[in-house]
Amino acid sequence: MAPTILNGSHTLEGDSVRVSWHPIQCSSYESHNRVTYYYEVPGTILWTATYETNVDFDNVFDPCTFYTFNIYASFAEVNGTNSSINFTTKPLAPSIESVIWNASSIYVNWSMVQDCTISQYRVVLSYENETVVAKKHTEQTFVQFDEISINLSYTVKIAASTGNGFGNYSGILSVPQRPVHRSKPVPGSTPAPGSTPTPGSTPAPGSTPATGIVGGDIIAIVVGSALVIILVISTIRIIRSRNRSKDGNAGPTMLLDLQSSSDSKDDYSMSNSTTHDTFTETNSSSYK
């Protein structure tokens, strides 16, 4: 009779493997005729005898490797038939490549240190290395935790499974504190009380940092104001000059007209006076 290996009896904890089976009951049980079990793992464990109904293998098998466990029972030098079970040992712990903050999310990326077919990964995010915040299972080598508070200190650990349970976790990695982005002060402005300007800002090559209205800015304002004043004064002078030119031309023309009229009147008066004198003289001569 073959020993019946318990369903799911092969448990893998880290680098250890335990296999269990049901005991064989014999009617003619005698103390000196105990049931002996013989087991082997081809290529690794030679046939070994035991009276127990389980066997532990500690640090015997390679990680992520397929094995076959064979067992049979012997009683009173009579051997039974074999029972077998196949299993694949757990993989080594993954290696975390990076942990990055993205707004209120944490992005984790990792890789395997050996060539192994992984059925899934388990990623555990905790704060203060104790309280589990989130746990995710994935077949990818990356995962993202969303809506994470930025005011806590976090740790990440990852384990991989080949289908027979998860192997050892990776080393616990502390998540870097999320960087706090402060807004840069406006050039020339005064920071609010209690605020701290962002250090390390460097002006572009060839540029002059803006520090308010000083130096060259005052000169530029003064020169610009002077040019505006000069332009206004020049405009006023040109307008006045044009008005004077119009008034001056009208004056002499009118004066000439008046003078011409006066001269005409004088000529007429003189003519009349001469005529009058001639007429008087003629009449006087005639009278005589």
The ordered string of helix (H) and strand (E) elements is EEEEEEEEEEEEEEEH
The secondary-structure class comes to alpha+beta
Strand content: 25-35%
Rg of Cα set? 58 Å
CATH-assigned homologous superfamily of the largest domain: Immunoglobulins
Task: Please tell me the CATH architecture of the largest domain by its name.
Answer: Sandwich
Mind telling me the CATH class of the largest domain? Mainly Beta
Report on the biggest sheet. Answer: 5 strands, antiparallel
Distance between the termini: 202 Å
Number of domains: 3
CATH fold-level name of the largest domain: Immunoglobulin-like
Outline type: rod-shaped
Count of separate DSSP helical elements: 1
Q: Percent range for helical residues?
A: 25-40%
Q: Mean of the pLDDT scores?
A: 74
- Which regions have little confidence, pLDDT < 50, spanning 5+ residues? 208-212, 250-288
Counting DSSP E segments of at least 2 residues, the number of strands comes to 15
Layout: helices, strands, pairs:
Layout: E1 11-13, E2 16-20, E3 36-41, E4 45-50, E5 54-58, E6 66-75, E7 78-79, E8 83-88, E9 95-102, E10 105-111, E11 120-127, E12 131-138, E13 142-145, E14 154-161, E15 173-174, H1 216-287
Antiparallel strand pairs: 1-2, 2-5, 3-4, 3-6, 6-7, 6-8, 9-10, 10-13, 11-12, 11-14, 14-15
